[in-house]
Amino acid sequence: MTSLYLSLGTNLGDKPANLHRAVALLEERLQTPRTALSSFLETAPWGYESPHSFLNACIRFDLDLPATRPEARRILALCKDIENEMGRIQRAPGEGYKDRIIDIDILLFGTLRMRTKTLTIPHPLMREREFVTVPLKEIYCR
Description:
Number of strands: 7
Order of helices and strands: EHEEEHEEEH
Distance between the termini: 14 Å
Low-confidence stretches: none
Helix content: 25-40%
């Protein structure tokens, strides 16, 4: 089994419903139930100003597949598909952070380490973001 840890965030619309929908879609597309889901944490926007607070969570899946670069790219594509399906407008290269209906980031995928233009694992900023570290600590190795 390979553990996959994802970070979820939303600051538009019905935020609890957005997180629950993202979790359900992830379970459906990964074809496995989650192993753990953190509490939802309300936080201020990070890296930009907005009147809309975020609701954040972390989720873990234990997958019966190897933590390889091709699998990581497949999971990233699956996450981006869910974001698009839920109505997220992707930012253009070089554009700063902005409000979003859902954000799904890969934090950890087994012991895989990779760095490409589109994906870095472990997530390079996860230790700097309380909205990631707090919920991740809640579910890590639970």
